[in-house]
């Protein structure tokens, strides 16, 4: 028969979500949502850094997106990489914290709304995965108006807002860097039963 302890024990720290990605989650061509040479294909790439500005070599990112027409794919084929565009990809960072995806530009899911990639990030020391967005840069007046009208972006000051918008590179690729904390920290979102809210208490 067990005895009841006279004092309560303090809780122990929770298990973090990594690092274990090098062998547990990546798979061949997980970051290639479309084949090389696919019309409209674009490279989304960047670097994940910690609060000190050092690259994170064992982070894992997932993107979820609409297709160029703004339709959210609802089909299988993501793991097989059989030519089916399923709107989902997974990429691990390299030793310099770099990552890349080959995909299609997402379209706006509603008229007048800004298109973006949903992003999930796993990294060492995190108690849970992080959620954020990577918006397409404005290419014309309509694009700028859509970014300005986005509820999440409109609730942020310009410096915070800039962490969620990709930059068009001279070669046509999209660059989007992630900072986990500190100066230039990326805006991260929390999801609950109510409206989406960011770490700063902003609505999504």
From TrEMBL:
GO terms for molecular function: ferric iron binding; protocatechuate 3,4-dioxygenase activity. The keyword Oxidoreductase applies. Transmembrane segments: none annotated. It holds the Pfam family Dioxygenase_C. Keywords: Dioxygenase, Oxidoreductase. Residues 27-109 form the Intradiol ring-cleavage dioxygenases domain. It comes from the Bacteria. Gene3D superfamilies: Aromatic compound dioxygenase. Signal peptide: none annotated. Belongs to the intradiol ring-cleavage dioxygenase family. This is Protocatechuate 3,4-dioxygenase subunit alpha. It comes from Promicromonospora citrea. The lineage of its organism: Bacteria, Bacillati, Actinomycetota, Actinomycetes, Micrococcales.
